[in-house]
Each structure stands twice: as structure tokens, then as C-alpha cells.
């Protein structure tokens, strides 16, 4: 009997599952049907973590935000975030068991800047006004960064996984763009419907535009990569689909970010010195400081709102700070954040707490038609200003330091690589990151899986290329 059970255990368990699941389905309980899928993912996590990571990449563009799973007012994306949480747990278990991790990654300047950032998030979680909300913020940051930076660097140790990462993300996201465009057309491509037609995959048009801009340069790398010449038609079709999506997103911040990335492309290609760029930035800053009053008066004369479907009007509305509700509400949120920063300049109110704390810091003269006295509809709309309110001065500086170190190391690596595929790949990544660095002045979406996965993944690719692949690439070029 024992031998019979041993040799037929799979059949017996399968039979029991089918019987149990059949009864539950008859009772209109369908969750048990996911057990085989969960078991498969569990086995994959321990036996083939790289395959699980690539599955998460594939699932990210199609993930859904399930609000009923909200903790402290913060939603969860399924199936990606539970999977990333599992990857994080496995990472810590392996770290405890093996007691080692590649020191070349740990000692890399980008890693050190990220660890400093996480350290400060942890410190300000301890001092938070709302500890549960801040703890959820910390944990969600950890599963994004651990999964797609620390585990990501090991995934990209295999150079082929870099291109797999790109394809597995851009193709399902292209499906989302097609779905959104069709949905938009059914509503007459109206500006109002353009705010929500990307649901349930994305919350609104701003994050939709940010995601498309973030991966837009990658499409050109894939299209002109000789390795994928037979897929060139597919690549150009994806470029056409994404371009349509960007235009119809009515995401003004996304448009600006793509233009800046386009300018940066020529900076890299023409090998313009950093000192020249710094001189331009200093000159621009001095110009703003000297003529700030006149500039503000000029902007206040612009009363073009971001309404209707006329793209020219949307572009003109970018600088409207007199009547455009979206622009004015952003200014209201920023001013509130600065007032919060003035009250708690060192530790802030706690990570993730801005949307629950900013209401009392609003000024009556700054309120708009879309403002709320309860202060419960959104964040500070800035990756740079929001942390000032939530984590104090160091909160903002730690993020800025990450950006500076990424571009410093990325640019140094770019100029050291020989002309070829790897150099083009790295440039596409730097341009993609640039779109979000620019976008971060006007919005903050790093708590969204569709932005966080490519953002931290791109940074992990830079580090992996610097640590694991640079030597081979330089050796090949010298032969």
C-alpha cells in the first residue's frame, strides 16, 4: 500500500484537487483554481528565479490595481507586487543561508547611493506621523528595488536577459496602448475620456504617458539593432503604436520629457563636454533669477487651458499658470509640500504620508476647482518636492544623489565602450531614464509597478554592464 501511494502520489493529489475544486466551483468559489498556478510560481522561484523575474516583467504592463487590497490607503498591483514580495523574501532567505552577495555590486557607487536612500526611508519611517502608511511605503520600495535592482543585476549577468527584458516589457505594453487607443476612439478621442480610457491597466493619462516615454527610446534601439533585423517591421509598428499612444495620452509632461531626451541624444552623439552643459545650466539659472518677475507676469497672461482635442492648445497650456486647473493644482501641492518641509525640515511627516497630511497646509488663495479640503486625492506631483515634505531635506537629496551617480557612471561607461550594440543599448537606457528624471519634476510614479520595474531595471542594467560585461566588450573591441 505504501509503495502504491508513493508511486501514484501525483495522480492521487491531482484527483483530490479536481474533486475539491469541482465542489468549490459549484459553490461559486473560484480562488482554489489558482493553486496549481501558485505552486508553479513557487517552484519557479526556488528552482528558476530568472524565469520568474522574466515572467514578472511580462505581467507588469498587464497588471491590475486592486484597490480593495489597499493598506493605509495604498493599492496593490496584481499579480506583480505579490510576486515581487515573494522574490524579496527569497532574496533575504538566500542571503541568510549563503551569507554572501557579489561585493562588486555592493561596493558599486550606484548601489551605495541606493542603500543610503533606503536607510533614510527607514529612519523617517520610525519618526513618521503615520507609521503604518510609512511601513507599507518602505516595504513596497524594498520589493521594487530588491527585485529589479539587486536581483536584477544577477539576472542581467546573462547579457541575453537584457534584450529579453526589453521585449517582454514593450510587447504587452504595446497591447495596452492598442487597447487604450481603441477604447479612446469609441469615446471620440475626447480629452475628457483620455484621462481614464487606459483603465484598468493604468490609473490615468499622466502615468500612461510617463510609462510610454520611459521605454520609447528602447524601441529605437530594438528597431535599429542588426541582431533583430528580421523583427524590424514589428519594431517599427511598435514605434508607430507608441507614438500614437504618446500623442493621445495628452500627457504634457511626457511630451516635454521626450523632447529633452531627444536633445540629450545629440549631447552624447556630439560628445559635448560636461563643463559646457554645466555652463548652460548656470547661465539658465542666472537668467531665471534675474528675470523671474517678468517671466511670471508673462506666464500669467497665458490663459490657454488644457481642454479639447487640439494638440496646439495642449502645448500652449503647458505654461499657463493663470487659469489651467491642472497646473494651478500642481503649484498648490508644491506650496503645501514646502510649508510641510518648513515645519519638519529634517525628518518630514513620514514616507507616503503627504496625501493624508497636506490639507491643513493649503492656502485659500492657492485652492483650485479640483482642490480638496480633506486632502485625500493624490500626492505632491514631484519626485523631488514630495520627499521634502515626507522625509525632509535628506529625503530629497538621497534621490537626487542616485540620479547624479547613475548619470555619472552611465556616461563614463558609455564613453568607454566601443561603437556597437552595447553602446547603443546603454544610450537608449540613459535616454529612457532621462524621460522619467524630467517627468519627476511634475509627477511621481515610482510607487507604480509599470514605472518602477523599468526604472530600477534600467539602473540594474547599467551596473551589470559596468561590473560584468565591460571587460568582455573592451576585450572584443581590441581584437
Automatic annotation (TrEMBL):
Q: Name one Pfam family in it.
A: Wzy_C
A cellular component annotation (GO) from this entry: membrane
Query: What are the residue boundaries of the O-antigen ligase-related domain, all occurrences included?
Result: 239-399
Q: How does it sit in the membrane?
A: Multi-pass membrane protein
Q: Which residue stretches, if any, does this entry annotate as coiled coil?
A: none
**Signal peptide from the UniProt entry:** none
Annotated transmembrane regions = 6-24, 69-93, 105-123, 135-153, 165-186, 206-224, 236-268, 274-292, 391-410, 422-442, 451-469
Q: Which InterPro entries match?
A: O-antigen_ligase-rel_domated, WaaL-like
* Transmembrane among keywords: yes
Q: Keywords, A to Z?
A: Membrane, Transmembrane, Transmembrane helix
Task: Indicate where this protein resides in the cell.
Answer: Membrane
This protein's name = O-antigen ligase-related domain-containing protein
Q: Which organism is it from?
A: Acidiluteibacter ferrifornacis
Organism taxonomic ancestry: Bacteria, Pseudomonadati, Bacteroidota, Flavobacteriia, Flavobacteriales
Amino acid at each position: 500500500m505504501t509503495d502504491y501511494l508513493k508511486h501514484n502520489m501525483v495522480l492521487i493529489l491531482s484527483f483530490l484537487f479536481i474533486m475539491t475544486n469541482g465542489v468549490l466551483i459549484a459553490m461559486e468559489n473560484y480562488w482554489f483554481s489558482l493553486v496549481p498556478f501558485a505552486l508553479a510560481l513557487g517552484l519557479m522561484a526556488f528552482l528558476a528565479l530568472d524565469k520568474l523575474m522574466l515572467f514578472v516583467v511580462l505581467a507588469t504592463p498587464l497588471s491590475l490595481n486592486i484597490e480593495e487590497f489597499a493598506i493605509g490607503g495604498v493599492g496593490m498591483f496584481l499579480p506583480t507586487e505579490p510576486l515581487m514580495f515573494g522574490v524579496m523574501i527569497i532574496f533575504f532567505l538566500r542571503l541568510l543561508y549563503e551569507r554572501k552577495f557579489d561585493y562588486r555590486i555592493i561596493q558599486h557607487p550606484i548601489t551605495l547611493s541606493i542603500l543610503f536612500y533606503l536607510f533614510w526611508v527607514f529612519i523617517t519611517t520610525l519618526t513618521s506621523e503615520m507609521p503604518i502608511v510609512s511601513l507599507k511605503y518602505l516595504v513596497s520600495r524594498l520589493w521594487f528595488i530588491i527585485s529589479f535592482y539587486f536581483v536584477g543585476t544577477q539576472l542581467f549577468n546573462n547579457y541575453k536577459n537584457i534584450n529579453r527584458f526589453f521585449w517582454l516589457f514593450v510587447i504587452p505594453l504595446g497591447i495596452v496602448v492598442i487597447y487604450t487607443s481603441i477604447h479612446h476612439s469609441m469615446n471620440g478621442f475626447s480629452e475628457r475620456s483620455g484621462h481614464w480610457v487606459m483603465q484598468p491597466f493604468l490609473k490615468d493619462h499622466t502615468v500612461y504617458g510617463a510609462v510610454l516615454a520611459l521605454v520609447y527610446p528602447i524601441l529605437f534601439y530594438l528597431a535599429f539593432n542588426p541582431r533583430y533585423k528580421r523583427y524590424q517591421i514589428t519594431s517599427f509598428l511598435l514605434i508607430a503604436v507608441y507614438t500614437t499612444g504618446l500623442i493621445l495620452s495628452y500627457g504634457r509632461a511626457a511630451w516635454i520629457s521626450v523632447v529633452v531626451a531627444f536633445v540629450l541624444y545629440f549631447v552624447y552623439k556630439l560628445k559635448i563636454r560636461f563643463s559646457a552643459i554645466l555652463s548652460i545650466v548656470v547661465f539658465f539659472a542666472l537668467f531665471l533669477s534675474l528675470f523671474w518677475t517678468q517671466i511670471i507676469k508673462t506666464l500669467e497672461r497665458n490663459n490657454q487651458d488644457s481642454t479639447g482635442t487640439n494638440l496646439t492648445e495642449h502645448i500652449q497650456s503647458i505654461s499657463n499658470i493663470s487659469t489651467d486647473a491642472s497646473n494651478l493644482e500642481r503649484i498648490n501641492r508644491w506650496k503645501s509640500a514646502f510649508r510641510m518641509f518648513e515645519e519638519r525640515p529634517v525628518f518630514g511627516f513620514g514616507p507616503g504620508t503627504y496625501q493624508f497630511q497636506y490639507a491643513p497646509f493649503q492656502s485659500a488663495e492657492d485652492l483650485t476647482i479640483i482642490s480638496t479640503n480633506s486632502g485625500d486625492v493624490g500626492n505632491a506631483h514631484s519626485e523631488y518636492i514630495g520627499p521634502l515634505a515626507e522625509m525632509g531635506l535628506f529625503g530629497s537629496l538621497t534621490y537626487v544623489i542616485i540620479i547624479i551617480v547613475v548619470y555619472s557612471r552611465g556616461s563614463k561607461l558609455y564613453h568607454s565602450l566601443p561603437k556597437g550594440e552595447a553602446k547603443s543599448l546603454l544610450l537608449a537606457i540613459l535616454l529612457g531614464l532621462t524621460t522619467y528624471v524630467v517627468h519627476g519634476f511634475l509627477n511621481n510614479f515610482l510607487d507604480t509597478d509599470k514605472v518602477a520595474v523599468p526604472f530600477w531595471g534600467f539602473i540594474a542594467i547599467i551596473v551589470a554592464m559596468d561590473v560584468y560585461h565591460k571587460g568582455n566588450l573592451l576585450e572584443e573591441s581590441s581584437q
